[in-house]
Amino acid sequence: VQHENEVRYRKQVERIRHIVTSLLQFARTTPAERPVEDVDVNLVVQDVLPLVTHILKTKSIRLSTRLEARQVVGIDVFDLEQVLINLIMNAANAVHDDGAIEIATTDSENGGVTISVLDNGPGIAPEQLKRIFDPFFTTDPRRGIGLGLSVSYGLVSRYGGHITVESRLGHGSVFRVMLLRRPAPLDEAAASAANGRLSTETASHKEVYYG
Length: 211
Hints:
alpha+beta
């Protein structure tokens, strides 16, 4: 009985820690002076992967990368790391055991970079897709309090970028992070964020394949 109580206590503490961490991350999305540097997104992806390996192993998730971007982007590297961790964790929670996740980077026509996180999970229902970036909205309350994607959206928007999502039930999802070569001024960043949210809500649903 004592052992069971200890396990239950540890789980409760871990859940409280997760909630507090999520709330602190959410608070950080308010505009502030952030150190911006030229960042190689491929290196950031490689640096982040060891931080999520233990989660992937628990579900035997296969993770592959296709890092083809050659441009650098202007962003705070720690913010980008947080965004990637949130998106990878979101994908890991979505897929079943022995599922697959792919992270891809490509150069954008505007001189920036697009980072894609694809999964072959069950997909997201259209009515949920429209709210996926809303604070405290979650498709599975057992997995968290629904701040990871909202935090990511806010962090990317700060630099004038945006995130879109495409999904189809039974075929998985893909989240795309569009980053600029140079961060946009705050007013332009807000406009870009609004356009990004609009394109997210009206995105066509496409199948996600792995080969």
